[in-house]
């Protein structure tokens, strides 16, 4: 992470890079986003090669990434962007996806994407998704979570790029009992507020626990934490 890449806060807007090969689509996104006081579009890219290059140069907080683009596609661009910022803190990639393309969803997970926006969503969905990712959280719609669980909640293989810095078993042993409780609730899709209510904690304390879980497991965000928890048996479908 570059030293001059500060987390967005009240002193500056969320910096967004748009990556889509259709000019009209990019223009539409820009129009939607730039009416928001807390969001600034810092650049546009028409292909994955340019998107990865601009992400390095501009250091956005969020990259809104289309999948199908000429030359380098959005999945490869996502791999390049996240590979340069292993762990929390780098630009978060928000992938545009649809229900009927599971291959894109799973490939994007492997590539290190932090969020998935359904193409049939609303402008409000787009704005909220960008704010969620800028806060350092991952975004996975409940419908997509069910698909991830159905596909990856079985032995073998990993979709979390890089994975923990040590073995999964050793990383899990490093969690405190409270951190493991938090991981289970995150895997169930609970928000910080819901976790706080369930464990009788303050939301600031929950946020600290979530950050420590991600750091100990070597994961970028909550999306990877969900997948990791199911992959390694911390939680099980229906459990």
From TrEMBL:
GO molecular function, one term: DNA binding
A GO BP annotation: regulation of DNA-templated transcription
Signal peptide range in chain numbering: none
Residue ranges of every copy of the Response regulatory domain listed in the record: 15-134
Keyword Zinc: no
Pfam families hit by this protein: GerE, Response_reg
Annotated HTH luxR-type domain residues: 168-233
Keywords associated with the record: DNA-binding, Phosphoprotein, Transcription, Transcription regulation
Keyword Transcription: yes
4-aspartylphosphate PTM sites in chain numbering: 66
CDD domains listed in its UniProt record: LuxR_C_like, REC_NarL-like
Protein's UniProt name: Two component transcriptional regulator, LuxR family
Organism of provenance: Micromonospora echinofusca
């Amino acid at each position: 992470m570059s030293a001059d890449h500060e987390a967005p806060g009240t002193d500056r807007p969320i910096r967004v890079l748009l990556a889509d090969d259709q000019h009209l689509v990019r223009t539409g996104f820009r129009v939607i986003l730039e009416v928001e006081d807390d969001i600034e579009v810092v650049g546009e890219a028409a292909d994955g090669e340019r998107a990865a290059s601009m992400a390095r140069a501009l250091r956005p907080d969020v990259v809104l990434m289309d999948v199908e683009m000429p030359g380098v596609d959005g999945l490869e661009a996502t791999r390049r962007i996240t590979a340069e910022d292993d762990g929390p803190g780098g630009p978060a990639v928000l992938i545009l996806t649809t229900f009927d393309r599971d291959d894109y969803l799973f490939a994007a997970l492997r590539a290190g994407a932090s969020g998935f926006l359904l193409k049939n969503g609303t402008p409000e969905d787009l704005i909220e998704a960008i704010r969620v990712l800028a806060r350092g959280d991952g975004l996975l719609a409940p419908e997509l979570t069910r698909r991830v669980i159905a596909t990856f909640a079985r032995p073998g293989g990993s979709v979390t790029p890089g994975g923990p810095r040590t073995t999964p078993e050793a990383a899990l042993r490093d969690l405190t009992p409270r951190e493991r409780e938090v991981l289970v609730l995150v895997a169930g899709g609970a928000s910080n507020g819901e976790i706080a209510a369930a464990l009788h904690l303050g939301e600031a304390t929950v946020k600290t626990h979530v950050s420590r879980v991600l750091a100990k497991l070597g994961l970028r965000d909550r999306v990877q934490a969900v997948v990791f928890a199911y992959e390694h048996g911390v939680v099980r479908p229906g459990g």
